[in-house]
Amino acid sequence: MTKKISIIGAGMTGATTAHWLAEREIADLVLVDIMEGMPQGKALDLAEAMPIINKDVKVVGTNSYADTKGSDIVIITAGLPRKPGMSRDDLLTANAEIVSKAAVETLKYSPDAYYIVLTNPLDTMAYLTLKKTGLPRNRVVGQAGVLDSTRMRAFVAMETGVSVENISCYVLGGHGDEMVPLTRHSNIAGVPLRDYLPADRLEAIVQRTRKGGGEIVNLLKTGSAFYAPAAACAQMAEAILKDKKLIVPAAAYMQGEYGLNDIYFGVPVMLGANGVEKIIEYNLDDDEKAELEKSAAAVKDTHEALKSLVNM
Ligand code: APR
User: N or C: which end of the chain has fewer CB within 10 A?
Assistant: First the structure.
């Protein structure tokens, strides 16, 4: 492979991201973790699966950032996951230090890399990565909107029995309980969700989407979701490496879009060879605008909490 993706954090989301990426056969992979032996063991195990799925992907596990040298993409998943009863913001103090180090160390070895951030609290960890690396905003993107939207698509498919391929959903806003599932823009084969589903069923799907991460945390009890978050990261990395110009909701740095400034926030972005190539501004009605403002205020609070913790 001529392309290289380094995944920082070889835990549940990191290793599963490697798994999804290996199946796509788009880049060699490096798994970095602080735990000795663990990334090496997972990488070897994954490498040993490649002959079965006929993919020529090299997978390396390491405790050294030097092995990430020359990465095209760095995916940051290192950090603590939630436990039942915790909000994503409760992870701020612990994860800020971990993500700062991951961002700074990887940039030393891969000055041209694009960054995809997955660690929670997502929007604020993407903001931290941007500030710590000093990169232009197109080079740092946060994952969450792809995840929140796939959850909504899955719930609509479960409700209607229609193929997931026919279901398009767009969830904007911060990656927290105030996220904004846009029911007016979401559709089943072109038919607006609002016309397809009774209002009470649609509202139930909206609420379940908002709390989708928490639902899984409560079931797992010892960690948070990893299959869907990891699949979201893999799709975003592929869009960048293949210059797909894929429009997905993701956390991007706002400079006036949607009336927001100096904040990472979930909006529709176009992902291509230059990372976040465009931020797309939807026409929103007053209710949608009000919901986004509420979500932005929550994200801004976490950004402020970060600034009081970390020197940026
Ligand atoms: N450098 C590298 N890896 C680290 C560091 C560090 N400084 N600190 C912790 N890690 C590693 C841990 O050793 C662990 O293997 O990060 C990994 C995290 O994996 P899990 O505990 O399995 O957590 P995971 O489910 O992958 O979630 C990671 O992503 O979705 C978010 O909320 C989630 O913030 C959490 C992050």
Answer: C
